[in-house]
Amino acid sequence: MLEKGEKLKKRELKDLSRKELVDLVYDMVEENRVGKYVPSEAEVLKEKKRLQHNALFWKTLISTISTLIVVAAISVLLSFLFFPVIQVSGDSMEPTLSDGDVLLLRKSGGFKTGQLCCISWQNKLLIKRVIGIPGDYVDMDDEGNIFVNNHLVDELYISAKSSVKCDLEFPMQVPDGKYFVLGDHRETSIDSRNSAIGFVDKSQVLGTVLVRMWHGVSKEDEEVD
To answer: What distance in Å separates the CA atoms of residue 118 and residue 67, rounded to the nearest whole number?
Structure first.
């Protein structure tokens, strides 16, 4: 029997769950049967706090994991529907973008001159810059200068002009629902100057580049290394 000073008060145990009470009583009976030992009130309260701490820990852990799963699911859904993520392959957009860059796109219905966009071509994803929109007259001279509606395009984003990849005749007008796109690395880029791609249909444009999330390695970086 418990001593007078060791009697347990009901109010000290009222917060325990049924399972916790059963486990506590079982442990007390086992200890009493083996070692003839009856725990004091302080020991019971200590055990109660331990059980409550464990219960709070697991509750918090499960809640955190559930929240992370929901956030991840929403992120994947948003990425698929509105903000696709792609990785740049090749050097056709140097020096603006490098091989290995990770880009966040934004799906949009309209595209403006100068925007970077992702297009689908022969089961590949290409990053190009919009130069001409429907109705524009695009021209290019032998030195690689680009003219849109008889105005020279000031292309500060390219390192060198070139017309080596061109097998089409200029000037030309961009048809309705089409776009004229170029890569910033004119010496290597296959784009609307070449009959292999030509004008890009609006349905081929997956979205515009919103932000670069990760920077790959450019040729300049490799030379420095």
So the answer is: 33
